[in-house]
Specification:
This protein is α+β, with helices and mostly antiparallel strands. The protein has a single domain (6-179), classed as Peptide Deformylase. 23% of the residues lie in helices and 25% in strands. The protein contains three helices and nine strands; from the N terminus they run βαβββββββααβ. Strands 2-3-4-7-8 form a five-stranded antiparallel sheet, sandwiched between helices. The protein is globular.
């Protein structure tokens, strides 16, 4: 296994729709192992293929909820069904979200509270997970990556303005920027 560099906003693969996975082989298994290792080293709770420069519809997640239930898996060629997003303002604490591709930034974002993830595992077996709360948020965040959408693209103007100013100040927003978990002093 290897830790992979994580691309930073502005890299074209992060802003394009990812392609379906068509080959399930040892190369895919190695990619998944590397993505888990990269996510753990970052640290993060989810990581999508485009974030490590792989334009495929795949993401991994690893999170332990408040009831000490461990949620860990890989979603290949996922479909995500979500409940309506609540109306109102995002809470600064409860709805604060970050992204490994926008390291060091966090902002409140309303997300649907419920989601149904339908995907395939490494053995090409279909599965379905009904998620609520933070796990539903993780699924929505990672699924967005597969569609070329970063969480900062969904922020309300007041929060978007501040994050975009920080992105510009950091010299990001164009191709050629990445960071290496465990080496660079950046966190998402």
């Amino acid at each position: 296994m290897a830790v992979l560099p994580i691309l930073i906003t502005g890299e074209p693969v992060l802003h394009a729709v990812a392609e379906p996975v068509t080959v399930f082989d040892d190369t895919l298994t190695t990619l998944v192992d590397d993505m888990f290792e990269t996510m753990a080293e970052a640290p993060g709770v989810g990581l999508a293929g485009p974030q490590v420069g792989v334009p495929l519809r795949i993401f991994v997640y690893d999170w332990t909820d408040e009831d000490d239930v461990h949620h860990r898996g890989v979603a290949i060629n996922p479909v995500l069904l979500i409940s309506p997003t609540p109306i109102g303002e995002a809470d600064e604490d409860d709805d604060s979200e970050g992204c490994l591709s926008v390291p060091g930034e966090r902002a409140p974002l309303l997300r649907a509270d419920r989601a149904v993830l339908r995907a395939f595992d490494l053995d090409q077996k279909p599965f379905e997970i009904e998620a609520t709360g933070w796990l539903a948020r993780i699924f929505q965040h990672e699924y967005d990556h597969l569609n070329g959408v970063l969480y900062v693209d969904r922020l309300e103007h007041v929060h978007s303005k501040a994050v975009r100013k920080s992105i510009k100040k950091s010299g990001w927003g164009g191709p050629g920027n990445s960071w290496m978990p465990g080496v660079d002093d950046l966190e998402g």
